[in-house]
Each structure stands twice: as C-alpha cells, then as structure tokens.
Amino acid sequence: MSIYGNTTAAIQQPALSSSSQEGKNINIKETEGEVVQSASGTLDAVYGVGGVGRTHRRLNARHVTFIGFGGGIGTGLFIGTGAALAKAGPLGLLLAFIIVGGILWCVMESIGELATLFPTAGSFPHFATRLVDPALGFTLAISYGYCYTIAIASEVSAAAVIVSYWTDITPALVISIGLAAIFFINIMNVRFYGEAEVITASIKVICFVGLIIVSLVITLGGAPNHDRIGFRYWNNPGPFTDYNGIKGSTGHFLAFFSAFINASFSFIGVETVVVAAAETVNPHKSIPKAVKRVTYRILFFYVLGALLIGMIIPSNDSSLVSGSGNANSSPFVIAIKNSGIKVLPSIVNACILTSAWSAGNSYCYIGARMIVAMAVDHQAPQFFAKVNRWGVPYFAVLASFAFGPLAYLSLGSGGASQAFTWLLNLSTVAGLLAWMTLCICFIRFNSACKAQNINRDHLPFKGRLQPYSAWVGAIGSGIIVLFSGFSVFLKGNWSAANFVASYIGIAIYIVPFVLWKLLKKTKFVKARDTDMFSGRFDPSFVPEEVRPHTWWGKFLDWLF
C-alpha cells in the first residue's frame, strides 16, 4: 500500500483487534481513491477517507513528547507570569494556574483518546467535521490556524525585543534570521522539525528547572544578600491585590480571575502534541505516552513555578509591568537581580530567545497542518494537501509561513513589544475556543460510541473520568473566553481597542461557522450515523521500539 497514484482500495470489515472489536457491525464497502504512503491497513489507506492525508509517519515517541514540552513551555511562562502576579497577587496567581491546569488535564484526556484512535491529518478540524458538523471543523481550522500563523510574527517580533537586551542591532536583521530558520525547518523532512523541538524544548526544560532551583535558593536565603524571604510577600503586600482599586473580597476575586488569561496563555500549546498524530510512527504508543507524561510534568512545573514566583518577588514591584518584553520583565530575572546574583539574567534571556523562536517554529507547523486538514476534508483547495518526497505539505507550509513577514510591521509605531502584546489575547482566545470545541467533539464521540454499542474499554487509549472531564473542559474554557475582557466593562476602564483585542477571536470563530453552514448547508452529525472506523491506525506492522536496559535509559524513558 505504500505507493502513490489512483488505485482501488478496499475499506474492509475491521479485524476484531483491541482497536476495533466492534468491527463486525460495519458494512463492507469498496472505495476508489488514492492509496497513501502512510497507510497502515485498509482503514487508513485512501486519501480523504476518514481524514487520511498524504503526510509520512516519521516522528517517534521522543519527538512527540518534546513537541508537547516545546508547545507548553513558552514566553508566557518566562515573561507573562510577571504581569499576572502584578494583577492577581501570589495566591491569585497560584489558584489561576491550578484551575487552568485542571482544565488542560480534562482537554488532554479528551483529545488523547480521539487522536490515538483517529491519528489523522491535522487532527483538530477533522474531529469537529467528523463528530459534530463540517461547519464546526471549518471554523476551528480558520480560528485556530489563523491565530497561530499570525502568532509566528508576534514570536519573531518578541525575539527582536529579546535580542535588544544585549545589543542595538537592527530588529529587521533579527526578524529576517528568525524567519529564515523557521522556513528551513518546516520545509524539510518532518524529522528535522522533531529534532529541532527536542533541542529547543530540552533547553527550555533545563532552564526552567534551573530557575526553580535558583528560586528555592533565593527564598531560603542562599542568595548573596542572604535574605530569607519565605512567605513574606504573602503577608505584605498580601495574597491578593485590590483589582482596579476595588477593595474587599470583590476586588480580590476579580484580581484572581484576571490571571486566567495569562495562565491560559502559558498552558495553551500543550494540546498541539496531538496535531502530529498523522506523522507519528506509532500513534497508539506515542500519543498516550505524550498525553500523560507531558501533561503531568507541565502541570507540576507550572504550578510549582507559580508558587515560587509569588514567594521571590512582591506583586507590587514596578518592574513586573515594565513592558520591556525581554528578561527585564521576567519575574524570575527581577528576583535574581534583587538578590544580587550576576550573569544569570543573560542566560535566562538566551533561554527566552530560544523559547520565542521555538514557538514561532511550532506555530508554522501547526498552521500548515490546519490547512492540510481543511484540504483533506475538502474545505480548502486540494493543492494544499500535496507533499514533497519527504512527505512535507509544501504549499501548506508556504501559506502558513506567509504570515511570518508581518513581523516587520512591528518596526513601525509602537515597536516589537506592542506587536507581541496585541496578539497575546487573540492567540489565547483561539486556543481556549479550540479546547472547548475539542471537548465537545469528545462528548459527541462518547454519544456515538453508546449509540453504536462500541465499548471504549477496547480502544487503544481510554480517557479518564469521561465524559465528565470533557464537560468540565468545555464549560471551563467557555467561561474564561466569555469573561476574558471583563476589565473593559469596569467603571472608567472602557477602551474600544482593548474590547476588540479581547473579543475579536470570538467573531473569527463564529463568522466562518455561519458562512460555511449557509453556503454548504451542512448538517449536524447524528450519533448513530457517525463514522467510527475509517482512518483508524493498524499497529500490526509497526516495528517494536527498543526498550532501554540501563537505569539511566529507563529513567530518561520515564521522564520523557
């Protein structure tokens, strides 16, 4: 089957394996179409059937895991947490990270099961098209893909700001180098992208672990100033701030709620680990492993990081809202400087620079795969699904990368820092709407399983606490989106620009849905009619992964 060309392929009755024990209820049918190179069996053999695309399976478990780490640890953690601390206070920041982290867990348990069973091109839009309504798949691809491709420019702009920490070199040169590197990585064999994520994610993880250790040293009095801080800043200026000057419990609650967008911005990106499902050698092994391990480790890092940030720097420190966009506004760096430690700020800034470039690289990949998913489901021109000899959808990569040069706009009025700030809310709202939509997809999937008497215990990966997790993920994400711009409605805070920045993401989500619904007259997919088999992966012929035998190898396998 690993050939290209127009061939007749049989979508046969599935064997009674662990991934499809209910196959005896499916009618046998013949389908004519193009047999794809990545076919593992009869169910994922034909292009366009069950979300099957032309990309090649070249990513192993290590790549997938680090793609998750890379997507989860970004500039939002290193820089954005400072503004969140200033708005919410240490306890407000910690609670926001715990709650949003819980929502992320619910989302990952939902999409992990779907992506393992249907490791299709682009994953996200196809799930919505297949399980809910083609119009929802179209709008998810537009909303999620558009905001992430736009974010390529914001991250490259952020890189230009970060470099300004060391030198006055022109930002145009930094932007040009960053864009060239992103394009080169994404147009090459997908393994290059996987290896690039392994390297950059490793740097970010090591940096963050180092920051946690340094934070512990600072708060325990081991810094050059020998000031044992402990929980001093939880008492003065206090665990919460008075949001917008509002006193009492109301002000404290609003302060806590204001940190949700910053916390969401930090967590969004972890879900992209399943976008690579169609290019993973063995998604039945790699996706569940990545979903479980990456999610727990990101949650641990972030919640511990939020706790320590609130201990090492007071929420009323003016440097937290300096708006510099580089290490100078990172709460970790501010605390390091205050404690008298030298050199480390430059090292942290280098890690933040790596983080910004890695994020831009990842966004280009995600945007391209969203476009591929649209083409496979016949919602975009078919040439976007074409691949080169390495299995890279080059037209989709070009279309995604085309938004990158918008970074040069940051050289005008306002500078690169303003360009980064403007796009933060847009990307966050798009990510939260994607979380909500994907949880809805799982709810419909669960209903289809019940309607067609499919036992989820026999699937390759079963999400925990379902469908309750999906309901919590959907409702929680929706609430954060709806109230993300609440501050503009407070007395004296109205700003048309801030209102648009907070809520235009919702319009970008709704308008394509309505237009596709009206133009194509799509219908809501009924549970009993949902296609539950095409596009499934057959792991029968996948080579067994070599298991580590040394204690060091086993430790790394457990860790990553």
Explain this structure.
The chain is mostly helical and 560 residues long. The chain is 59% helix and 2% strand. It contains 16 helices and two strands. The chain has a two-stranded antiparallel sheet. Helix 4 crosses helix 5 and helix 5 packs across helix 11 (344-376). The longest helix has 43 residues, at 75-117. The model is unreliable at 1-31 (pLDDT under 50).
Strand residue content: under 5%
Write down the secondary-structure element order: EEHHHHHHHHHHHHHHHH
The major β-sheet equals: 2 strands, antiparallel
Average of the residue pLDDT scores: 79
Terminal Cα span: 33 Å
- How helical, in percent, are the residues? 55-70%
Q: Which structural category fits the helices and strands?
A: mainly alpha
**Which radius of gyration do the C-alpha atoms yield?**
23 Å
Q: In one word, what is the shape?
A: globular
> How many β strands by DSSP?
2
**Contiguous uncertain segments of 5+ residues:** 1-31
Enumerate the strands of the largest sheet in spatial order, edge to edge or round the barrel.
Answer: 1-2
Number of helices: 16
